[in-house]
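Q: Give me the 3D complex with nicotinamide-adenine-dinucleotide.
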Amino acid sequence: MKKVRFGVVGAGGISNHFHLPELSQIQEAEVVAISDIKLDRAETTAKKFGITRWYTDYKEMLEREDLDAVIVATPHPTHAKITIDAIEAHKHVLIQKPMTTNARDSLLIVEASKKNPDLKIMVLPFIYYDTPVYDYVKDVLLNSEIGKICIAEARTSHGGPEKYQAEVANMFGESMDVWFFSSERAHGGVLLDLGVYSVTRLVYLLGRAKKVSAFIATLSKASEVDDNNVVLIEMECGTLAFAESSWTQVPGQNTTSIYGDKGTIHINYVAHNIAIYREGLGWSYLDLPREKEPQHAHRHFIRCILNNEKPIGTPEEGHHVMQVLEAAYVSAKTGKTVSIY
Ligand SMILES: NC(=O)c1ccc[n+]([C@@H]2O[C@H](COP(=O)([O-])OP(=O)(O)OC[C@H]3O[C@@H](n4cnc5c(N)ncnc54)[C@H](O)[C@@H]3O)[C@@H](O)[C@H]2O)c1
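A: Here is the predicted complex, encoded as structure tokens.
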């Protein structure tokens, strides 16, 4: 059986909780090496997952190891450089969200990937919405079952990254270090961390954004970066949308609502994962499976590599989301609406 040989960059929370456990379940995946600037994290994680080689310098890993693909699972400001270095070393790349921290860097990734059209560069979190739930909603929209879509809203929230970061620090016997709250080390706050999900869902369902206007604030956390925001978006299709994200909502929510002139859809509201109102028919409720297969994101990426398929979440799509997030920061700072080109 053909296997994809992976190198992972970053041995922190998301690698330990998501990438490595999932890859260990997939026969077509082999994690050859891991790197982290902290030697102890690289070594501890490698031993935990039976990875035989670990590095403190990902460039050395790229040079020395025979890798097919790289997973970039480091803090957001490092994603662009590591991704471009991996592309230049001719590796397929799966990039954690947010793709980058600004649209200039995401464009650099687009340009690097265009120079290497044989490589699969997959940007999260688009693939998280390749589910029976979102397929159903896409069909409803495509068939105009709820009429013309006038308003859409997407909310992504939880109580903040510090509890999760404490668990990660504990895992390695370190004291807690919440880089998510540092402007120098994260470049932005909840808008980058969770707003990326809200904006991706809107773009995934409704297409490109045209204009952005936003309010962004730090209301509760002892943080240098934003912990709440509301982003208003005029989509190219004409729909008016808002994307909200928050580190101060308990319980967290991951909800999307779409309002057409002949009906309404709520996704992931409290009781059922889809509630849909069709004019003349009233409300109906569905509980569709939340995933197509276990480890779908990694399996999809591997299939793209082995079968030469296009990833769900291309660099161009990721760049558009970064344009929206950057426009939101600019709008909040200037008080002006920002157009996206
Ligand atoms: N998709 C999801 O559900 C999800 C969840 C959490 C985090 N994330 C994203 O994953 C990324 C990592 O987050 P995390 O929570 O794992 O953070 P983390 O702090 O737990 O882990 C990041 C690791 O990267 C290492 N690192 C930093 N710079 C490096 C470099 N240049 N080379 C190699 N290693 C380096 C750090 O030492 C650390 O061990 C972030 O961009 C975050 O937004 C995604």
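A quick observation: The chain is about 35% helix and 25% strand.
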